Amino acid sequence: MRRSLADVLNAATGAVPSFTCYTLEQASGVITAAERLGAPSCLLLAPSAFNGPGGALLASCLVAAADSSPLPIAVQLDHTTDLDLMRAALDLGVTAVMADGSKLPFADNVELVCAASELAARYDASVEAELGHVPGSEDRAIGAKVGAFTDPDLAARFVELCQPDLMAVAVGNVHGTYPSEPRLDFTTLTRIAERADLALSLHGTSGIPDTQVRQAIRLGVKKFNVNTELRRVYLESAQHLFNVENKGFELLGPLRQLIQRTDEAAASFIELAAASPLPAAPLET
Ligand code: 13P
Question: What pTM does this model have?
Fold first, then answer.
């Protein structure tokens, strides 16, 4: 069942694991793991992949994967400031966009998210925003250094002004590999969660120790994104599989192995989400 990201967040009993899929094997591996473990999930479409050769086919493949699943699955166009790109992805059936104005001045970020929300509403789709930039490349692990953290007071104002469905935060997380052991700042995360009344998302989850991911979920993270770890597993398996002698030029076997390796990697994050209770709901009076 293809669903908006907001619907998937509501349907999930824990945080929603979200995985960047550049290939059919990755999409297949992620969906297989999600279905085996019964976890509503989100397939992420990298804007670089969508903009490149075969991008529309990839988007349609992720949409078809969500459609054919018995679970609520969202398909999200990840990080972009390009409203035309968002529109093109929404026309193909994605159910969420990430309007990432985190490198823009505050007012321009607000304006981008408002425009994206107006657009997404026409498709019943959801919008994720980002305040406080998460450094690093989304397609390449460069060992980026941690940047400035999201300001909790600014976060409250931002949410009031543009009301996204979800907000990505910078609290010591980076995209790609970490140059040293990551240390999320839980004090800042707590203050953001107290002041900004919405679901938070954690980007750059590859490489963050499980205990810290669990604590982030306990403090208000409702969605977490994984890309680098799935790329690492895929490429390391592919390097091995395609290096062995293959006199019959057989392709299906190696591709099935890539699906299997992706399934195993995605499953470990899905199990982590399942083992991480959300904050207790406030008592009704
Ligand atoms: P990693 O590549 O660090 O796992 O981050 C993924 C991500 O945040 C995609 O938006």
Answer: 0.96
Task: Choose the residue to mutate in 16, 20, 45 for probing ligand 1, maximizing ligand atoms within 8 Å of C-beta.
Answer: 20
Report the alpha-carbon distance of residue 221 to residue 279 in Å, rounded.
9
What percent of the chain is modeled with pLDDT above 90?
Answer: 94
How many angstroms separate the alpha carbon of residue 247 from the centre of ligand 1?
Answer: 37
Q: Say if residue 285's pLDDT is above 90.
A: no
Write the DSSP symbol of residue 41: E
Q: In Å, how far from its chain's centre is CA 273?
A: 13
Query: CA torsion angle for 14, 180, 136, 203 (degrees, to 10)?
Result: 10
Which backbone phi and psi does 25 adopt, to 5 degrees?
-65, -40
Per DSSP, 173 falls in state -
DSSP letters along 58-99, please? HHHHHHHHHHT-SS-EEEEEEEE--HHHHHHHHHTT--EEEE
Q: Determine the residue type at 68.
A: S
Which phi-psi region, left, alpha or beta, contains residue 141 (left: φ > 0; alpha: ψ -120 to 50)? beta
Per-residue pLDDT band for 242 (boundaries 50, 70, 90) equals confident
Listed in order, strand segments (DSSP E) in the chain are 16-20, 41-45, 73-80, 96-99, 126-131, 166-169, 199-202, 221-226
* Active site residues per annotation: 78
Cα distances from 208 to residues 39, 151, 212, 239, 282, in angstroms, run 21, 21, 7, 25, 28
pLDDT by residue (tens digit) across 101-135?
Answer: 999 999 999 999 999 999 999 999 999 999 999 99
Structure tokens, 240: 């091995």
Hey, how many other C-beta atoms are within 10 angstroms of the C-beta on 195?
Answer: 15
